[in-house]
């Protein structure tokens, strides 16, 4: 009993204390705002990447990332430590992206459709084949609800559990959407089977 | 099966993502060993995953990200910023309050706006209304048909007709219908033949018909906006026209006409009486038209200035022949489309609830129970029309009904009702009964009216019946000669039927479908 009490009294190893998101958030809540900077440094690239993958281009990545961290800053005081910080952060990021995509869709209603909208911008007979570009464009053609989980899984390497918490749906749905995204991608890339060796 | 495979493939997708439980992995790997299809799918999914991963280029780092964030954090958002997201809600609330205030002090505002809109639409559809004559290029034959068959062609190619009629309750209706049946174009000719008119009398008849054309002009108006405006007085004109023609026929050939017109009617149709009727109709002008448009159906005042129109036409014809042609072109394309607009009429029966609208793909029937038709003392034509059939060589279609009976199916073909009909009747013969009487007696009774007998046994699967073509009918010939011809035809027909019966017996369906049909 005594040993156990002594163990509880021991301070946590310094290295763990510094690196742990929860500790940083606790210190932020206690008034040490400098810890927020550490959180930003630690997660900004991941957030920027998710935004980039979700939107399919990097035009608005930094603007949306700024909005994400501003929201985090404003709401960090109310963080309830019920889930991982990253889960919460990714959820805010995905929601911000969805908001942005929604705005774009409304704007597009009033914009004339481009002629080459359904074209992947690739001529199979052309010699300078940029496979990455073709696949990238094909991914951007997928609907948001399929593309976002696919990107979070294949690029960011999040688990199904993390994805389900980020996009707020069931694990089974995530599993199904990722499979459907892959099937959709395969169909979109069908004309380029030979070049992609599918 | 496909669904099952999709589930398997979904498992494979989760397998390459390392998201399956130990148990599921073992199970799947076992299946993979024996299924080439699954192996191929696995390879394909792996390739897609790899392509996805390699397709994304890393985005360049932004060294000023933290600096920008820090400055954003320092900037205090204005107080209204947090309320900004609710701006649409505030807008709606403000708009509702304004609307409530406005309506409180102007309770009739909405009615006024609706009325204004109505009058705008009404004015829109009233534009450029021109007499039907210019759209349909009516001939004397058309006027004749209108008198006895109550129908007027709406366009040049005779594909659409305006048909007047009345239902069982005596309520008037008009129909705009596509000419599914081949219109008979020799009724006037037959009428002339029937009365044995000489050239002078024919000219007289033509002049009677032509004299009514100009009056009929203003009764049906059309325009390039798919609008048909009908003056209710057209029902009177219809009767007057018939009366005029019968009066003429009485004068020409009283003896023959007496055979088809009851004596009391003959008294009605003396020239003086008819002249009085026509004068009454012409003096009873109503400016209330029924407008049938693609959006609505309504009745409203409209004054068509015949004189001005005639002047305009004269001016046009003087100016340039070309203009006239263009004018003609504009209306020659007139065609009522029973599209979505008309379909809407059925549900939302327009502003004027007096109208009952029945619409299908090729008929638009409008019942007008409450629209006043100018009351003129006209003879009842319905009974007369039955007798007129004889005069116009049985051109009017006839019909009879087979009682519906569950379990039996009658398929019928109805081509040209003015010439004949034929139908197939599956699954009944002489032993088949409708209610109490047997088929034999029904058929014998029915066909007795047509002057010939049918052997029901020969009807085992099909029978066909042709009426004598009206063009062959000659009033001056003995009716018995016709009957002989008819009998000959029937004999031929019977022979044909016997032959067909043999062939068709093979094709009689063993289980007739449950459907009955009215003929």
Question: What's the layout of helices and strands?
Answer:
The complex is a heterodimer of chains A (198) and B (519).
Chain A: H1 2-9, H2 14-19, H3 21-29, H4 34-55, H5 61-75, H6 85-109, H7 131-141, H8 144-154, H9 160-167, H10 171-188, H11 193-196
Helix pairs in contact in A: 3-4, 4-5, 4-6, 5-6, 6-9, 8-9, 8-10, 9-10
Chain B: H1 2-16, H2 22-34, H3 36-55, H4 65-74, H5 81-84, H6 87-105, H7 109-126, E1 130-131, H8 132-136, H9 140-149, E2 151-153, E3 160-166, E4 172-178, H10 187-195, H11 199-217, E5 220-222, E6 228-230, H12 234-252, H13 254-260, H14 263-268, H15 271-283, E7 288-292, E8 297-301, H16 306-319, H17 321-332, H18 340-347, E9 356-359, E10 363-367, H19 382-391, E11 409-413, E12 420-426, H20 439-448, E13 462-466, H21 479-505
Antiparallel strand pairs in B: 1-5, 2-3, 3-4, 4-10, 5-6, 6-7, 7-8, 9-10, 11-12, 12-13
Helix pairs in contact in B: 1-3, 9-12, 11-12, 12-13, 12-15
